[in-house]
Amino acid sequence: MVSSTCLQTGHAWAFAVAPRPCRMARPAVSCNAAADLVQTVKKVASDAGKFAAVLGASALVAASAPLDARALTYDEIQGLTYLQVKGSGIANTCPVMEGGSSNLKDLKPGNYTINKFCLEPTSFTVKEESQFKGGDSEFVKTKLMTRLTYTLDEISGKFNVDGGGNVEFKEEDGIDYAPVTVQLPGGERVPFLFTIKELNAKGSLEGFGGDFVVPSYRGSSFLDPKGRGGSTGYDNAVALPARADAEELAKENLKSTVALKGQAVFSVAKVDPATGEIAGVFESIQPSDTDLGAKAPKDIKITGLWYGQLS
Hints:
Blueprint: H1 41-56, H2 74-78, H3 82-85, E1 110-128, E2 138-140, E3 143-144, E4 152-161, E5 166-175, E6 177-183, E7 189-195, E8 197-204, E9 207-214, H4 250-253, E10 260-272, E11 277-287, E12 299-310
Antiparallel strand pairs: 1-2, 1-4, 1-12, 3-6, 4-5, 5-8, 6-7, 8-9, 9-10, 10-11, 11-12
């Protein structure tokens, strides 16, 4: 995790809330340094084991922890009113599993539909070139600028498990993208569209992954400060008519909304055959915004927790 953190905060409660079972406080969103662009499924599976251990240690947390700092189950979240959720940060969190088993063999083979699939990032890092000559590029810490608006939720798709424990997950619908902006130590801001659109992941319960589509951060009708757009607006900068066809201005004049590709890996930490709940950890690498093709995208690494319900 990172040295510089971007904390999840919420407003204090102005009314009494019925006491709830104490749980592990949810980790703050951080923007940390990471070692390498390519992370293996094996590492994510290892992180899933740590995640299960964290859930198992929930009884050690002080009962006085504020409600908005706790991880809540799906039923507990459904039992809250709008005013209880408003301004608390709870709407930006994924449910956690109170019961279940870390023995992944408890999940029987079958062709499931996964609903309520939720991804909650706990870390955002951006790959930058080394400040030292000959140094390797590395993922650096960032500061989250867009606050509590980055969780993906209500995603659905097909989740098939065969007799050998092999998994195939295809994302189909849901709130599967969220605009996010982070700031690098030097002050540069990096916008990107956090997403898993059209994810097609394969592997085992210990670790499965695949590619997904990253749509353009802005649409073709967006106009830049010079009035240029992909499907509307000027073809070039009107103030520079003599340089309208200049090669160095081509990428600014010709707007591109071509979708890019990202990769994600997931690992299952807990399953509950009785309720159909399933949860684990994930890590994804995706490109940032390209300013409609005018800039080269940066690599964004996102790690966090996920939750879903199988039926």
